[in-house]
Amino acid sequence: MLPRIALARLVCRTGVTFGQSANSYCTSSTDPSFAAIKPKKINYERIGIVGVPFDKGQRKKGVGLGPKAIRDAGLIDHIQEISPKLNIKDFGDIQYEALNFNGRKVGNMKKLEHVASCSRHLSHQVTEVLDDDRLCITLGGDHAIAIGSIDGHLHHSKDVAVIWVDAHADLNTNSTSPSGNIHGMPVALLARELCDYWPYIPGMDWQEPIISIKNLAYIGLRSVDPYERAIIEKFGINAFGMREVEKYGIREVMRMALERIDPEGQRSLHVSYDIDSLDVLEAPSTGTSVRGGLTLREGIYIMEEAYGTGRLAAVDLVEVNPAIGTPEDVRRTVEAAVHLLVAACGHSRKGDIADTLDLLQK
Predict the structure, then answer these.
(1) What is its EC number (predicted)?
(2) Which domain range does residue 201 map to?
């Protein structure tokens, strides 16, 4: 019996149309079984935080310090200020041991033994947080952690739409990546349409590429590799780069993104947010910064609109690297991360609503 991931890619290579067979690993989001799924109302009064101090998806040290830096900046206190009714639970940091592949290798996938193990542990943890009826906030760590966080969300909700906020598409495979760094591959690993672009990957048998790439929208792109652009165009992926943000404005970009990935308003929503989507002036302490990005105001608006759908179930905030830049750079970057996460938890720039009016004089 082939492992699940090998079977998945074998099914894809045989030419079976996606969603054609109920037994196919690459199931379709338009499968009739999804028609009966009703959108679950997210309990925004319960929030779970998971730290992933992981840096093996790329080569720069320090990104593993991101979760601690964000917590130390008072994240939980800032979220609690939204309302004393909020029940916030910190589930701590993911712990894992690197796998032993016994000599099995996959070319051009650096530190796979770490990525595979950490991602599996994170997937279980995210599912646990969501099953506990909480909005799940995952603090990275590099963007490779999205493999585990989105997989865990899929195990809970099955029908998921993803907004990927990033300067980069993270859509390379091991055969196209110029670096072999897995933080540039998570979307390609998650998307069922791309499962035949991969060889068998040891240690990843647990991970099912079942999300349709049509249920994902990019926002903030401005550094896309040639292969990634070819895949975006081939599959008609919803990609809103900085040119589109400038052309339409962030309000219209968010409206179009949500309409395209969840036209019926039925899907559980996941926002995977790379801090490098912000302009380097807003968030300088990150490993792969690119000039000309989102303003912090635009970044916050994305989170506010996602929260406003009532279906935002999970958020990743990744690639904050406190080892890069001056203390002021680090402060500005971490502060931006906290602003984004507080917005994702329901903070309104108009002011949060008081729980009681008893203090007002009649």
Answers:
(1) 3.5.3.1
(2) 43-348
Residue 227 region, left (φ>0) first, then alpha (ψ -120 to 50), else beta? Answer: alpha
C-alpha distances (whole Å) from 286 to each of 3, 21, 274, 330, 362 are 37, 43, 9, 9, 51
Q: Give domain status of residue 26, yes or no.
A: no
Number of domains in the chain: 1
Each residue's pLDDT tens digit, 53-67: 999 999 999 999 999
Residues with a known catalytic role: 143, 166, 168, 170, 183, 274, 276, 319
How many CB atoms within 10 Å of residue 276? 29
Identify the CATH number of the domain in which residue 122 sits.
Answer: 3.40.800.10
Looking at residue 129, its pLDDT comes to 98
Q: Could you tell me where the beta strands, DSSP code E, fall in the chain?
A: 46-52, 87-93, 135-140, 160-165, 216-221, 238-241, 268-274, 312-318
Is 6 a domain residue?
no
Whether 15 is in a domain gets the answer: no
CA 101 vs CA 111, 116, 123, 333, 355: distances in Å = 11, 11, 20, 37, 54
The per-residue pLDDT for 48 is 98
Give domain status of residue 232, yes or no. Answer: yes
Phi, psi angle pair for 32, to nearest 5°: -55, -25
Number of other residues whose CB lies within 10 A of the CB of residue 166: 27
pLDDT tens-digit map of 102-157:
888 899 999 999 999 999 999 999 999 999 999 999 999 999 999 999 999 999 99
